[in-house]
């Protein structure tokens, strides 16, 4: 450690990240000097894998180049904490983020890259009336504030770029979402007929057509409408794409009730079973090694006159010893059958038709949101039953689940419900643009100024309902029954804003770069974000060596932001061997800087650790 480095205040540069990955795979392609990529050499290395033809299939639209650049540009914004809007701030592992999801997805790349197991989104369907995000290469935060001030903005189908605008909106968000997914993760996307074809083209390009898993037909309604001109739309689509071949869909558990045929007529202690034939379709002369005699319970010695058995004689003897051969209740069946136990059965493969009995419908989604909130504040919110089916097929008990068009927050509600059911510890990250409610709307009259206010209140009430139901059931426990735990029903609210660190003009000397309206907590969260530390980690205001500072996640990061820092305090901080240390430039003089460098360098050498010391 020779000097204190300045903090990088930009989000992860994914282009630079990919370039470094290429250099690791093919170090010979790095040019001497600036280290840029020699693409001609890369083409030579790849040989026949490079397509040099003039004609190839491609999906394109006006504005695609800009959409690609949108996914590549970095963000200098931040997320500011809102403890006053949060629930269980100090202990929760859930996040609700108010902001433009394009900027937020960029900001989350450092801390959550490759960590999200499941993403579900219900994006605007582009019907000509719903809100379509308008992205800008200029001041992203000013653009966001402008977007948040709009309500019900349309993408009129009279526009010459009706579908192109929608594709340009979706492409960078899907690209960034893929980066957040774990290798065994998947994305589920609800969509109607308007953009179904284009969405599949986009996903094929972003995720690869080999990672397409299913196009689920969800039965969203149960009655036909006589108001339609052509066909009544009874289903919506849920597209499923995996991040890679590592994704394995969760099979459904089998139960005796749900699977016809599993019974236990002989009270077998191993539980319900079904049988399968012991007779091989192959003839005796074709499989002579599978031709032998089997003793029956009534004393007969049975062989099949024309066919072989399915199993070897050694396996058969094992089946007899385990009591797996079934000869009927009276033991006189002509040929044996093999018992297959429910407890050993493979799970049920999911299907691509989700009926309303299994996955709910739009009426159910509207009713449960209205019952929770006391009013109809959302149009056609998704039912939690649909969300729970998504969770059931693509998450495990410790998954991070994200929805970056969170709307009515049905997914957050479903995550808490699923955790309550199976004792899991799934965490959610909800992202929503704080779009204003319409003047005169039921939501506006009820005091909700934007969609985030409604979504957050829905999570609060849903969590309270789950806690009350568990506490009530725990008061009625049977003897020996363990009480159920209340799952994590809290969430930290964070708001998108511009950086709390001012950028000096060229030639300007700025002693204190922290903006005057920002709190210490604002800066701590910005440092967590830019350093790639998960935003739910615990933050402790403490004293080290008599100096007040902040410790994040047990000294994963220590932030020094108050004047009065001494050499003794720096030594005390170094003695704790933190992973990262931030010191504001405004609290350091040249002597303290030199001492800090030497103190942390000595600690690194003595304990063989790395301490990342930076200033801002």
Brief overview:
Helix content is 32%, strand content 18%. Helix 3 runs parallel beside helix 7 (162-180), helix 7 packs parallel to helix 8 (196-207) and helix 17 (567-575) runs parallel beside helix 18. The relative contact order is 0.13.
How does this model look, in words?
- The protein is α/β, with parallel strands linked by helices and 616 residues long.
- The protein has a ten-stranded mixed beta sheet, sandwiched between helices.
- Helix 4 (101-107) packs parallel to helix 7, helix 12 crosses helix 13 and helix 13 (410-422) packs parallel to helix 15 (451-474).
- The chain is globular and about 100 Å long.
- The two termini are 17 Å apart.
Low-confidence stretches: none
Q: How many angstroms does the end-to-end distance come to?
A: 17 Å
Quaternary assembly: single chain
Radius of gyration: 30 Å
Can you count the helices? 18
Average pLDDT taken over every residue:
91
Outline the biggest β-sheet.
10 strands, mixed
> Strand content of the residues, in percent?
15-25%
Question: How many extended strands?
Answer: 23
Task: Order the strands across the largest sheet as they lie in space.
Answer: 2-18-3-17-16-4-5-7-6-15
Q: In terms of structural class, how would the helical and strand content be classed? A: alpha/beta
Task: Assign an overall shape.
Answer: globular
Helical residue percent? 25-40%
